[in-house]
Amino acid sequence: MTARFAFSVAVAGLAVVALACISVAYGSTVIPLEQVIGALGRATGILPHAAATPIDRIVVDLRLPRALVAIAVGAGLAVIGLNLQTITRNDLADPFLFGLSAGAAAGAVAVITRVGDQLGVFTLPIAAFTGGMCATGAVLLLLRRTEGQGNERLVLAGLAVSFLFTALTNYLVFSGDQRAAHSVLFWTMGGLGLSSWQNIGIGAAGAALVLAYTLVRHRQLDALLAGEQTAESLGIPVRRLRNTTFLVTSFSTALLVSITGVIGFIGLMVPHIARAIAGPLHARLAVVSSLIGAALMLGSDLLARTLLPPQELPVGVVTSSIGAFFVIAMLMHRKG
Length: 336
Hints:
Helix 1 runs antiparallel to helix 3 and helix 4 packs across helix 5 (123-145). This protein has a single domain (2-335), classed as ABC transporter involved in vitamin B12 uptake, BtuC (Orthogonal Bundle). The protein has helices at 2-25, 33-44, 54-88, 100-115, 123-145, 151-175, 181-189, 200-216, 218-224, 228-233, 238-260, 266-278, 282-306, 315-335. By secondary structure, it is an all-alpha fold. The chain is globular, with a radius of gyration of 20 Å.
């Protein structure tokens, strides 16, 4: 198992690197590999005496930070989905199911249609983060009122909050500035168009937080797989673990969604794929999930940028399409 795990990590890591290089080189304008290497060399000072070219801005200022944000967001959403599926024992759990993404989208749409760009480039991330945390507060409030009634209550609370914030988003779109409809549509379907060196730290922080938490608490999360009673018998405070995990995943989701919008199905699909490779235990599973999530996000973004040039599809359209086929295949497999 150790050799298989090491091989899987190596393959997934190489896939992430390869897709990142392809993502930097390909888009509405294809940049030859030697020009990409030259731009990176000039940016890092390896080629200090070489004159900068117009290609440098495309590579260094636009595509490279976009690829890095894709890696962070894909990895983060995958591990978030893994943790949510563990604490709810629900194979379909992901950030959107619990209203976290819907809350972030509502915050961003409120700013787009009502407030405007008051805080510069950080206006949308701050608004989306605030909306995501409001959704988290609403879910936790509902959980407090239904405490001790089973994991399904967490799912139902998340669905209720998701529907509520989705309805709020639709109201804001309908009653707000219709000229902002395109921006709203792109935000609610997700995309990496806001990626820059200024906000890349937000995505990295969201991914690092949930991955570090999972690796630190991996033994306690493993115990939950055997059931709540077994975990309690081992001395694990199940209720506190569940609440803490939900808070960490909510905070990370708010950070990630604040720079990309709503991107569905990454958190749902990737843990199932990773379990087939790494097994059910969370230490290895979190590492493999993060790598597969990063690769899937890079590939989805590449498709979104190249399917309808010069237009750019929202990346959520691509991930949702892949996710729909994945769920159908999973259902058919289980039926067989």
